[in-house]
Design goal:
By secondary structure, this protein is α/β, with parallel strands linked by helices. The chain folds into 3 domains: 57 residues, Single alpha-helices involved in coiled-coils or other helix-helix interfaces (Up-down Bundle); 212 residues, 3-Layer(aba) Sandwich (Rossmann fold); 52 residues, no CATH class. The termini are far apart. The structure holds guanosine-5'-triphosphate and magnesium ion. Magnesium ion binds next to helix 6. Keywords: Hydrolase. This is Methylmalonyl Co-A mutase-associated GTPase MeaB. It is an enzyme of class 3 (hydrolase). One of its GO terms (molecular function) is hydrolase activity.
């Protein structure tokens, strides 16, 4: 501080008294401690149950944390929310970049809130660590939904592997449902296995397409067609309407050739425009039909039960793998054996067995 400032500053009025620093230091510690004070699990649970979106965000951050100290608290929060979860429709949406997912979700989500629904939009994007969250990153395409009190938008958790990202999203679904969100939309792009992961956490899976150069089925993964409960040809507006209808017919023909689904549901292709909103309500009506039918047959609950079993096993697999590969002894032994395998000193199978035996002994 310059001497002229010193003269002007009211804090320096009494020259020679230098106790400020000590007072300030303790004040700073106090402020820091207060900042560090995290809400307890009970506080988070009651905040979520009362529908507080800020608390919901904080709890999701806790779930997404890679700090092992947070895991226990996160589990406590999930456990507290679980009795109030499950009362929702979970919808997965996939489609290649540029197909209009964000624009569609903006239109569809807004439409649902106008019906009195509470909509949570989540994403599964395992590439987001590299691309810094391209998916849902463009909240500009969802400018109305972002501001909507009955909507909650959360970009994808980041992580190195799909398993971790997907598990966090699944746990986030539970918290959103407990916070009163009755329609959960999960967006993904077809990177790696992310579609399969999303398919295994939703009730209804929607594939968004646009009409192409005539050969609509070209380049489409068969597995995705089989997973889809509906195919929606987006951008059916202006000059595109004719082509979109042609694509719809072609997809409907193709869908007929697939074996019947376990749910007995017959997936349909429809057209829509996320811009003019034409066809948006048809998508919702189709989901309602599905919901009604599968609730009646019991398939809805059966599928959720199977998904829960699946995620339990997935979590065990993931934890086992993590435990194994993170053991310091295993890390060095693995390196040694990689070299030994490369030099043909040991077979890959024998090396694997050796490592597994070592791990078993350490348990
Ligand atoms: N004409 C027309 N354009 C649309 C429609 N839906 C989206 N678009 C446009 O298509 C472009 C891509 O839309 P996005 O919503 O960003 O697509 P996305 O699938 O979310 O893309 P990524 O986030 O990159 O995966 C934008 O310029 C939109 O304005 C539609 O129904 N009709
Ligand atoms: Mg997008």
């Amino acid at each position: 501080m310059s001497s002229s400032n010193k003269q002007a500053g009211s804090l320096n009025e009494k020259a020679g008294i230098s106790s400020h620093e000590i007072t300030n230091a303790s004040a700073i510690i106090q402020i820091r401690n207060k900042r560090r004070q995290q809400p307890s699990a009970e506080e988070l649970i009651s905040g979520i149950l009362s529908g507080n979106r800020t608390v919901l965000s904080r709890a999701i951050t806790l779930i997404e944390s890679t700090n092992p100290e947070h895991t226990e608290k996160a589990n406590e929060v999930i456990k507290g929310c679980l009795p109030n979860a499950n009362k929702s429709i979970r919808i997965g949406i996939t489609g290649v970049p540029g197909v209009g997912k964000s624009t569609f979700i903006e239109a569809f989500g807004t439409f649902l809130t106008e019906l009195g629904k509470k909509v949570a939009v989540l994403a599964v994007d395992p590439s987001s660590t590299i691309s810094h969250g391209s998916i849902l990153g463009d909240k500009t395409r969802m400018e109305n939904l972002v501001k909507n009190e009955n909507a909650f938008i959360r970009p994808s958790a980041s992580g190195e592997n799909l398993g971790g990202v997907a598990r966090k999203t699944r746990e986030t679904i539970i918290l959103c449902e407990a916070a009163g969100f009755d329609t959960i939309i999960i967006e993904t792009v077809g990177v790696g296995q992310s579609e399969t992961a999303v398919h295994s956490m939703v009730d209804f899976f929607l594939l968004l397409k646009i009409s192409g150069a005539g050969d609509e089925l070209q380049g489409i993964k068969r597995g995705i067609m089989e997973m889809a409960d509906a195919i929606v040809i987006n951008k059916a507006d202006g000059d595109n309407i004719y082509k979109a209808n042609q694509a719809k017919a072609e997809f409907n023909r193709a869908l007929h050739l697939f074996p019947p689904k376990k749910s007995n549901w017959l997936p349909k292709a429809t057209t829509c425009s996320a811009i003019t909103k034409e066809g948006i309500s048809d998508v919702w009506n189709s989901i309602l039909d599905y919901f009604e039918m599968t609730k009646e047959t019991g398939f809805f609950q059966q599928k959720r039960n199977e998904q829960n079993q699946f995620w339990m096993i997935e979590t065990i697999n993931e934890q086992l793998k993590q435990n194994f590969y993170n053991q310091p002894e295993i890390i060095s032994l693995l390196e040694q054996n990689k070299k030994a395998v490369q030099n043909n000193e040991i077979s890959p199978f024998a090396a694997a067995q050796l490592l597994l035996n070592k791990y078993k002994k350490s348990l």
